[in-house]
Amino acid sequence: MLDDKKVLYSGMQATGNLTLGNYLGALKNWLTLKDEYECFWGVMDLHSLTVRQVPAEFRKRARNLLILYIAAGLDPKANCIYFQSHVSAHAELSWLLNCFTYMGELNRMTQFKDKAAKHADNINAGLFTYPVLMAADILLYQADYVPIGKDQKQHLEITRDIAERFNGLYGDVFTIPEPYIGKAGAKIMSLQDPSKKMSKSDENVNGSIYLMDDADTVVRKCKRAVTDSDSEIRYAEEKPGISNLLEIYSSCMNKTIEEAEKEFDGKGYGDFKLAVAEAVNSVLGPMQTEYERLQKEKDFIDGIIKENDEKAAYYANKTLRKVRKKLGLTEKPR
Ligand code: TYM
User: Fold this and answer.
1) In CATH, what number is assigned to the domain containing residue 229?
2) pLDDT beneath 50: ranges in the chain
3) Measured in angstroms, how far is the CA atom of residue 7 from the centroid of ligand 1?
4) 26: domain range?
5) Which residues is 146 bridged to in the sheet?
6) Is the CB of 25 under 6 A from ligand 1?
């Protein structure tokens, strides 16, 4: 694409309060990759509609997510930060790709099974075809890499399968994307139940650290984190609580797990938990300050949205035109 850089695509749903898991599993990696690649970061507001939203709150939340991307350090001039729903090519390609996706494949998606169990009263078709919209997001921009947390890996695999199937029928239309899963922080677990991933939708608010939690709340949640009856600070399968805290600490401090283990050798859980909270606050504090500042820059944010929507639409429509042509859809008379 531009400047012969490889293309990177990712995004987050504008649903609920973002957690430290979203930051360490995705956003943090985006920051390290943003200069090396041509990047597109979507606010995935269409995906959010698979669960019921309160319109006024939803509108605000989606805009706030875009602001958060910038507050975290993504550069809206160098990278394309935009709303998925502002580029209609996403919905259009999603339909076309639906016709190249099998029910059996979608039935195997673990996230669908989990979400269907959680929202038994609203198992809508959008929830089922969610991965196809995600495939459309990625394929529209001919992305080479997709930085995601581990929980999204299966969705990337189906994206690749759909793209390969389409290319097999119509020639090289889509770039086949690779997942990019960071070494650290790829799956941050709940502080209250370290067998479950830290999640925006967890009913137990003490299980998740939210990106907007203040410093005292972070200390309180870390102090309450579930550990074990042992007293050793070491990464091990039989110590999921401590391992998760080590993962959080080392990820926030850009250290390896071994370095963190050495640092806390001989120390107690109490001191360790406080150090984890401080490490988290050192990441969240500056981001929250910048987020508050940007909230007041309405014109600047509106300008970014307008500029980036257009840029995204330009690239997305280029791919969509190619797909339409390959499929034999009638061209519009000029
Ligand atoms: P979403 O909004 O659930 O999560 C956004 C990103 O955060 C990662 N993540 C985690 N990483 C580590 N530990 C955790 N506890 C944790 N929780 C969440 C997710 O893996 C993800 O990378 N379907 C996507 C949004 C999406 C998308 C896309 C992503 C839509 N279209 C195209 C990439 C490309 C989702 O629901 O992410």
Assistant:
1) 1.10.240.10
2) none
3) 18
4) 6-185+298-327
5) 179
6) yes
